[in-house]
Write the structure tokens for this entry.
Amino acid sequence: MAVKIRLQRHGKKNFAFFHIVVADSRSPRDGRYIEQIGSYNPNTNPATIVLNSERALAWLNVGAQPTLTASKILSYEGVLLRKHLQGGVAKGALTQEQADAKWNEWKAQKDAKTAAKKSGLTLAAVEAKKAAKAAEIKVSEARAAAIAQKKAEAEAAAAAAQAEAAAETEAAAEAEA
């Protein structure tokens, strides 16, 4: 029996999320599986991955083959690195302490990178809101200036009309006299 680690699609149209499952390669994509080892939601930024890395590593060690996308997810989560380090320990190239130190160093770097991306996204959102607010203020000031100019023109026209009316009444008074 060929066992695969693959994604099982769930969700609705244009808004899918996936379960990471271990299944027989002959079973349908969304059909029967042996074990569910995690989930993957690409709809969030950054994508949300929940993975039981111990079970994934155990399945890899007994010969389960990940699909291309599943292998990228396993690599992103560090499961493949851990399998590689365990292979080095088994061959005697590394001690378990060295392998654990390399793993912890890699995990710290990955966590820092993820935190930096999340903070960058929140800062970008705040900057976008500030820019939108500034643009809105600029537009409202331009509208207020246009309204004030129209009002001033209307007042000037009214004053000119009053002056013309006063001049006509003066001219009419002079004509009578």
